[in-house]
Specification:
The protein is of the alpha+beta class. The protein has helices at about 10-15, 80-90, 105-120, 125-135, 210-215, 225-235, 265-270, 280-290, 295-300, 385-395; strands at about 60, 135-140, 145-150, 155-160, 165-170, 175-180, 190-200, 200-205, 220-225, 240-245, 250-255, 305-310, 320, 325-330, 335, 345-350, 360-370, 380-385, 395-405. The chain is built from ten helices and 19 strands. α2 (about 80-90) crosses α3 (about 105-120) and α6 packs antiparallel against α8 (about 280-290). The longest helix has 14 residues, at about 105-120.
């Protein structure tokens, strides 16, 4: 189907009906065409084609490393690995298969990443920190912003349905259409809608309940043992599945059905089943155990459905790929609003630990985006994998300040 044949009326109708899911933790990840185990390769600068500039809405103020609170106390763990992987993304050629909103580009970072490649894969923390200071200029992003947290759940599952494994995690359906409105209307760049073709019309894609009732359901990657765990894995957008044979796989966000997200906690509260301030994952799981005949009713109150793709777990230190197409490192990655902070840039984040005034100050990498991550200095801090990371992420709602770290002598941060 040719996108340009869609009328304005059809696009408007689908856009209204297929609003983006609020729990889409990231945009569609870019296709990662580089190996994370091979040495970093930096192509000649002449091999990169210039792409149109994207204006950033942030107000940047030139700063200095001495103004970064707690920088000296940063332990530097995984700092160099994060920089090497970030350079893999920065030095990756742009192609038609890549969809990255407002990213930093090779032109500004080429010299820095060439030095990183020359230094190799293994550099100690102190040398890594000194390299940052020698080569990067801090730019304060004016204003404070909200800092929340997210994580990668670890759940139990099986390849086939049976016993306790009854909750499917679907791959994208074959009839799901993802339409990039920016290809039709440049002013809508980055906006996508979902639907399916019925006859000669594009209509909103099926709801969660409708997908469950279909005879031609999407392919299932894994079956989980708990409906609430399955739901919250969709909320996070990715997760590790421990299989019965001791192996594991990663479910990575692939797409969603375009339907609006509704909170199952609020659904329970509206019906007097749980107080809203008691609608934690643990309490919702207990309610589901006490009311097994109503679990589908609860889950289907949310029309949205996330679809996954399977990823092999290569390195225990790295998590799922973010919107930048590079695997996230626990406590070294954040999701940002790319209209303010370009993807692929190091950021110094000064905030506090969940529910406290204890400082949390770290150099992180802007490698992800999220539907709810909007505004200057707004960040979603990636805590890593597992229950402890989940506890930290669930309680995090702090104020924070950020500095974008940009190559020296490259001027103010920019994006393309």
């Amino acid at each position: 189907m040719k996108l340009r044949l869609l009328s304005v009326v059809v696009l408007g109708a689908i856009l209204a009906a297929c609003a983006s899911s609020e729990y889409e933790s990231a945009q569609e990840p870019a296709v990662d065409t580089v190996s994370l185990t091979d040495p970093l390769q930096v192509p000649a600068l002449s091999s990169f084609k210039a792409t149109p500039a994207r204006s950033l809405q942030a107000n940047y103020v030139a700063s200095s490393w001495s103004n970064l609170p707690g920088w000296e106390a940063d332990d530097g763990e995984y700092l160099w690995l994060g920089l090497v992987n970030n350079c893999r993304g920065l030095m990756r050629p742009i192609s038609g298969s890549l969809t990255i909103p407002a990213r930093a580009t090779p032109q500004e970072w080429h010299a820095v990443c060439q030095q990183v490649a020359n230094m190799g894969m293994h550099v100690d923390a102190q040398t890594a920190k000194q390299f940052m200071q020698d080569n990067l200029q801090p730019w304060l992003v004016s204003g404070q912003g909200l800092v929340t947290g997210y994580y990668e759940p670890i759940v139990r599952g099986a390849r086939s349905q049976g016993g306790v494994y009854q909750w499917p995690m679907y791959a994208p359906p074959r009839d799901l259409l993802t339409i990039d409105l920016g290809e039709v209307y440049p002013e809508l760049a980055g906006k996508r809608i979902r639907g399916k073709l019925v006859g000669d019309k594009v209509v909103p894609y099926d709801t969660r309940a409708q997908i469950g009732q279909r005879s031609d359901k999407p392919a299932v990657i894994a079956w989980l043992d708990d409906p609430v765990e399955a739901f919250f894995l969709q909320v996070q957008g990715s997760g590790r599945v421990l299989l019965e044979d001791g192996s594991s796989l990663r479910l990575a966000y692939a797409n969603h059905n375009g339907r609006p997200y509704s909170s199952i906690g609020r659904w329970l509260a509206d019906r007097g089943e749980l107080a809203l301030n008691q609608a934690s994952m643990q309490n919702i799981k207990q309610w589901a155990k006490d009311n097994p005949s109503r679990v589908d009713e609860m889950l289907n109150s949310n029309q949205a459905m996330v679809f996954f793709r399977e990823e092999r777990i290569q390195d225990a230190a790295t998590g799922p790929k973010g919107a930048y197409g590079i695997p996230l490192i626990g406590q070294r990655a954040i999701a940002v609003d790319p209209t303010f902070v370009p993807l692929g840039t190091p950021v110094y984040l000064a905030t506090t630990r969940p529910g406290s005034n204890e400082p949390l100050r770290r150099l992180v990498y802007a490698q992800d985006t999220g539907a709810a991550i909007k505004g200057a200095a707004r960040a979603d801090f990636y805590w890593g994998s597992g229950d402890e990371a989940g506890q930290q992420a669930g309680r995090m709602k702090q104020q924070g300040t950020m500095w974008v770290l940009w190559p020296k002598n490259a001027g103010e941060p920019s994006a393309r």
